[in-house]
Amino acid sequence: MKIAVIALGKIGLPLAVQFASKGHDVVGVDVSQRTVDLVNQGVEPFPGEAHLQEKLAELIPAGRLRATTDYADAVPGADAVVLVVPLFVDEETAEPQFDWMDAATRSLGAVLTAGTLVSYETTLPVGITRSRWKPMLEEASGLTEGVDFDLVFSPERVLTGRVFADLRKYPKLVGGLSEGGAAKAVKFYEAVLDFDERPDLARPNGVWDLGSAEAAELAKLAETTYRDVNIGLANQFARYASTAGIDVYQVIEASNSQPYSHIHQPGIAVGGHCIPVYPRLYLWTDPEATVVSAARAANAGMPEYTIGLLEGAYGDLAGAKVVVLGAAYRGGVKETAFSGVFGAVAALNARGAVTVVHDPLYDDDELTRLGFTPYHLGEPADAVVVQADHDEYRSLGPDDLPGIAAFIDGRRISSADRWPGIAYRVIGKATS
Question: What is the pLDDT of residues 357-380, one digit of tens each?
Fold first, then answer.
């Protein structure tokens, strides 16, 4: 098949590589000339994705994959077009920002040819594939969906850093605007993906047709919103446990020993492109979902709560030099989308602290561009807050952070015995 992949980001490029590795001819489209140039040189444009570099080094010289900034070079005559353009959410209003996707859809429609399957993999509010993308593509192309081309929604369900493994592990969900389109999508994804055996599933692992684009849209929102609500509940338990002299981690371990309980872990923040964003997309179409909105508010308030723990352990923070460990939203991933670092730094600055930030994945210039004052291990400080669970932080001790009087472990990666004579606090454990 000839396949076009629109947007060669942290999901789109691995998808293009996966499709090409199955023997298909793949052209990736991206607005960034730098990304296009690097891909065509066989060089990964971003670090950290397992096996991506080695696969690029094999596929590019073999002519199975190339990149371009020109839709007209990639789309006409394609058997399938997969679009993975980012959808952003306004941090203040929580409104979806469709600008990038609208632009990509119009550019795609302008060169779309008959017989093409179009699949959107970007997570969307329920109904958007049918109500927004269908008329936009029809208007731009002059073609009729379900007659001249087929449109489906098939959400990406992978995590950056392990995309190729996740593509094999999880069923590929598909929802079409017509039965014929859905059938074409099932056939397409069966030809470009491989699946691990999953005896734990009620049906064989593979491509699952959910019956409609709306069902597939909701499935992606539901699985991610579940995680946000679960973490919100864990955070509520943790905040109560710390006031009642209870270790919430023992409680969670005990509760989860029963097969119907799956309580997640509490922590300083829920970050990334997915968990804090997709519940807002769900709430956009179901604003009466009080459980979802309450969990989102609970999680959004955790950085402020954590700095309150520091204040209780250390005292007045005015003038205190406080180190926030971790700019990334989670350990091992160089990404700050909705990271708890922003809320933690804002809460510290509001208390008059001298706030500095360390992250092993970011150099001083990068931290400065993010608006932070860089910190280097070994420099004197007054207190520490762990924001990201980088592996490098698990072995830290007093020599790495000399002079601190309080250590607030927002990710439970250390232990009190590593910090003798220092006020050590963990979210969800009472002060001893």
Answer: 999 999 999 999 999 999 999 999
